[in-house]
Amino acid sequence: MGTASREQYDVVIIGSGPAGMGAAFELSERRPELRIIILDRLQYSSGGMRNDCKMNFTFPIGFPLDYWDRDQAGEYLEKVSEFLKPSILPKSRLAIYQQRAQRLDTELLEIEQTHLGTDGGLRLIKELQKELERRDVTLALKEEMLGLDGGSHVIETSKRELSYGQLLIAPGRQGFRFLQQTLDALGVSYIDNIVDIGIRIETRIEHYPIVTDYYDPKFHFPDKVRTFCTNSGNAHVVKELYHSSSGQPYHSVNGHAYSAGHGKENGLVNFAMLKTVGLTEPLASGQQFAENLGMQAMLMGGGKPLMQRVGDFRVGSRSKLETFNNDLYDFAPSLRDCCPGDISLAMPARVLRGIWKAMKRLDTIVPGILHPSTIMYYPEIKLYANKPAYLDGYFNVAEDVFLAGDGAGTSRGITAAWASGIRAAEGMIRKNR
Fold first, then answer.
1. What angle do CA 295, 301, 304 make, to 5 degrees?
2. Domain residues of the chain, as ranges?
3. pTM of the predicted structure, to 2 decimals
4. Residues of 311-349 as b/e, b for ≥16 C-beta within 10 angstroms?
5. What pLDDT is attached to residue 5?
6. Contact assessment for residue 234 and residue 266, using Cβ atoms and an 8 Å cutoff
7. Cα separation of 253 and 241, whole Å?
8. Is the pLDDT of residue 27 over 90?
């Protein structure tokens, strides 16, 4: 790396999602003299706040138990809440659902939540960017980190070279592979043997009426299956593009919804049913396992994710275009760019069995979810289980290099990612005394 046009910063942050922003605000508040820059490879500020912006403020949701205990998470959640000032959503009739769940060895967690919607999340991001600008924090969008020289404290970007005093890498789930490459360059050992695999369910709100009492109900079923990321009202299923380590594209599905005041309600609800899979030798890479599942689904779907009606699945038939009709199948999919098919041909049998058992339990707790019209989209895969060898409790992995956020395994969601960014920032400040 040359020195001709090298710019110097006290702190360089990779990733403009909640982890990166949480760190930037903590550093600028406590050490306003620091020269800070946030880089993001995309042309807009990224992260979970951009997609649905649903936030949970109750432990253990979002806080991996390997790195957080209840007291510690509570302390950081208080800081996040004080900064973001959330308006907590009301809940009702939880005791009824909890009693039904308990009889089926299932737990319904009671979580403090807020939901801004995709439109509200974009407004929040704009407000946060203005505040960063007011604090003289530089935000460099559409600038990608390409290389790192840890010994010289220099990174190469798609536009220039930057010299850093301390570096925070917080690329989020979609930066999973990038983070692994960076850890390899630094000589930091890690494991990624855990992955969440599942489907996204879409149905009419009247078939999942619990969402009128509890916006994002968190059910934990036997066999490490759980519900995740519920969206309702003006709710949509979307595709997310990933690339394998060999550069091949594949899709995972996700969901989002607009805020309650956005209007144009479509009367649908969607949520994920995920099973956590822990791998052991010789196949110990969740990343590689997920890539193969994603590519298999792409093969089955002709380059698109798969979708299947519950009515077809229950009688052992693949879904076809003609089964998306106006009879029992009484609503159109919100994600039309999918291939009707048979998810059982692409999904590991053990994963599918665990999820189907959980769906039957859920249909007893909240009758209606197994209506024939309900759609199952596949695959939904969550890659946030990198587990680097951290040097301390502040997510330090190498000299003056820290990690935070979902991609680094320190969080699973917006609020916990923000908390992990604060915690990493505290580690930087401690080293800079």
1. 80
2. 7-89+112-191+386-431, 194-382
3. 0.91
4. bbbeeeebbeeebbeeeebebebbbeebbbbbbbebbee
5. 64
6. yes
7. 9
8. yes
Average pLDDT over the chain reads: 92
C-alpha to C-alpha distance for 189 and 187, rounded to whole angstroms: 6
Cα–Cα distance for residue pair 119/98, rounded to 1 Å? 32
Position 2 confidence tier, pLDDT thresholds 50, 70, 90 = low
d(CA 123, CA 233): 19
Query: What pLDDT digit, counting tens, does each position of 83-107 carry?
Result: 999 999 999 999 999 999 999 999 9
The dotted CATH code for 7-89+112-191+386-431 is 3.50.50.60
Query: What is the β-pairing status of strands 161-169 and 7-14?
Result: parallel
172: phi > 0 → left, psi -120 to 50 → alpha, else beta; which?
left
* Residues near 93 by beta carbon (within 8 Å), at least 6 away in sequence: 213
Q: Which residue has the tokens 């403009």?
A: 16
Determine the straight-line distance between the first and last CA of the chain, rounded to whole angstroms: 29
Decide if 351 contacts 197 (C-beta within 8 A).
yes
User: Tell me: the pLDDT tens digits for 226-252?
Assistant: 999 999 989 999 999 988 888 899 999
Mode of pairing for the β-strands spanning 194-204 and 375-382: antiparallel
Per-residue pLDDT of 136-157, as tens digits, reads 999 999 999 999 999 999 999 9
| Among the listed residues 324, 278, 10, 24, the one whose alpha carbon sits nearest the alpha carbon of residue 163 | 10
User: Beta strand pairing status for 154-157 and 107-109?
Assistant: unpaired
